[in-house]
Amino acid sequence: MIENVVGVFQMPFGIATNFLVNGKDYLVPMVIEEPSVVAAASNGARMARVKGGFTASTTPPVMIGQIQVTDLPDPRNAVLRVLLEKEKILTKANEQDPVLTSLGGGAKDLEARMIETKAGQMVIVELLVDCRDVAGMNAVDTMVEAVAPMIEDIAGGRVYLRIISNLATRRLARAKCIVAREAVGGDEIVEGIVKAQAFAEADIYRCTTHNKGIMNGIAAVVLATGNDHRAIEAGAHAYACRNGRYTPLTSWEKNHQGDLVGTIEVPVAVGTVGGVTKSSPLFQIALKIIGAKTSRELAEVIASVGLAQNLAALRALVAEGIQRGHMKLHARHVAMSAGATGQLIDLVAAKMIDEGKIREDRARELVGQLSN
Ligand code: MEV
After folding, report:
1. pLDDT tens-place string over residues 102-143
2. Closest Cα to atom 1 of ligand 1
3. What is the C-alpha to C-alpha distance for residues 143 and 163, in angstroms, rounded to an integer?
4. Bridge partner residues of 267 (DSSP)
5. Cβ of residue 213 lying under 6 Å from some atom of ligand 1
6. Half-sphere exposure of 1 (CA within 13 A, CB side)
7. What's the pTM value of the predicted model, to 2 decimals?
8. From atom 2 of ligand 1, which residue's Cα is the shortest distance away?
């Protein structure tokens, strides 16, 4: 899959449970190195399940391919000329991918706009490509490269960049859940979560961590299913500041019944076929476990995971704090670094948790005592 390979790097592969999305049960594969994330996602999904789980939807799977045209004597006129030749350009783009077009996808529309840059005015031509069930990097990049010479001719300028945009504002996933106040732990916790939301909305330092927690879940499913988690991360954070201010990707409010209402909206450009999905049997297994038939269904589950992850994090933060959830695995790590092996790992970890002392010096003492 890559160059200069010297080995294979393994990561833990877990399965989050309790997800009910649009009335269907899902087991959610997650690949992540951080303790507690899979448990937290399952816990968030369990809390949401009481009132029917998640309602999720997506826009059609449209990606944006950009072509940068520079050195234009008359950029405004170039925009018009490109728009007038739209059909010809779309036909050329669609010739590149007969399979995608036969499935109802392909380049559907084209836009062109002028931008001011420090290197002068440019025209940015954007192909809007319905990618169906592929993530779309290859399909879109092939199309923009193929139409670039034609656009140079029509616009009368010089094309430099021809590349997909990872800010997939045309490929959004949304999810919503109502969390019963009893399910989340009572009125005080509901109040705390509403205040945590307000904190994230008002403060970029908190907002970054709020969104990081959401991406813990999203990136783990994206990675497990053989999709590009860097693309999704970049797109999500850019989407979070689309109005010029960095904002939370989720929102939490209290309704008239005193329950929590959570929503998320995030670009989720993932595929269920194509890309590297066939390069590893693990990606295929992950896709089989999640059982999503289309890229849109996969994106709907992923958005729900982001919302569940955020719910569980906020609940823990406003109640006991997140360290307690981390303790069991943390104690095991400490026991192992103190030399515990096999069954001794759990024995040493359990003893340290009981004592409330999770330290390597104590673990070493316990290894000495318990291994005799
Ligand atoms: C840790 O990986 C994620 C959290 O910090 C998220 C949050 O603070 O909302 C717990």
Report:
1. 999 999 999 999 999 999 999 999 999 999 999 999 999 999
2. 213
3. 9
4. 172
5. yes
6. 11
7. 0.92
8. 213
